[in-house]
Amino acid sequence: MNFATPTLYVNPDKFHTIKVLEWSLEIEQPLTGHDVLSFSYAGNHGYDEPLSNAAANGYVNNASLYPTGFGGLPTSIPDPRFSVVTQILNSGYSNYNGITVTERHAPQHGLQGQVSYTWSHALQVGTVFNPTLYTAANSSTQTDAGYGPTAFDTRHNLTADLVYTTPKLKNRLLDKTLSNWSLGGKLYLYSGRPFSVTNSLIPSSLSSSFSGTVLADVTDPKAFSSQCGKAAVRTGCLATNQFASVVTASNPDGQRDFGNVKPNGFRGPGFFSIATQLSKRIPVTEHTRFDLGADAYNLLNHTNLAVPNSNVGGTGFGLITSTVSSPTSIYGTGQGAIVSGRVLVVFGKFIF
Fold this sequence. Notes:
The protein contains two helices and 15 strands. 4% of the residues lie in helices and 38% in strands. A hairpin with a 2-residue loop joins strand 4 (85-108) and strand 5.
């Protein structure tokens, strides 16, 4: 009986745990008795992060298409006993730097809140990299070819919180109807997340033992200035003719390397959302009360778009075909919190 050629995972001789160095600095300056302006800086450096090279046993088996090779890959399989060999390395690293400016307003006349702006930059080796630059877990052979923005590198981030509570009134009737109302709101405004443009057709044209990810070659510099906004829902913000094609018998001038742009070299659309709450506090006794109100997540029902389809070899390249969720909702927190549309929650609480 003939069995399929097995795959193999290769771990380093010494598998190190991830290590992170962190540092920060903050300066605060009171503006008034109720307002404080702060400047803060935070940074970190991670190292001994795992990398996964799924092309360790890859080679070029079609000399007629690639007579000069492909990105340094050998022309014969390195180890014919196995098909795909995934090499795990300890040599990934990352860096983050962020500056935040915050204005905080302490409670005054029923109003409190803060607004915060953050500029940050997150870089990493470990997303998509050139597998031919990583050999036998020997870190001395590596270069920064795979060093680029992380998938969550949000360059600009503006958030704001505001809560206003109506004061106690002297008129008894007005006090019962108009006092103890609370109106709160939260604003989220982010710049676009990065993404990589890849070409899924290339690995299959090399060999069956190659399963790595290949970044596309940019041939038109105008691709970097493309605006992947809401217009990309109908018209792609990127076009296949801006990138190198796959090498074929009729097209020998196609892509022959692992990409000429570092990972996550393109930007998707930004993010905007507002969440609000309106509630009324109804005293019952000295120590008990009812709270009645409603929460609205994504109050304006604003559609936030995901990054476009970024596989040159796939369908709908350059088109945006999905949305992202709000950071918070009744179903949980984080941008994977299920719901992207408006959600209204009516609540009642008895507090004692």
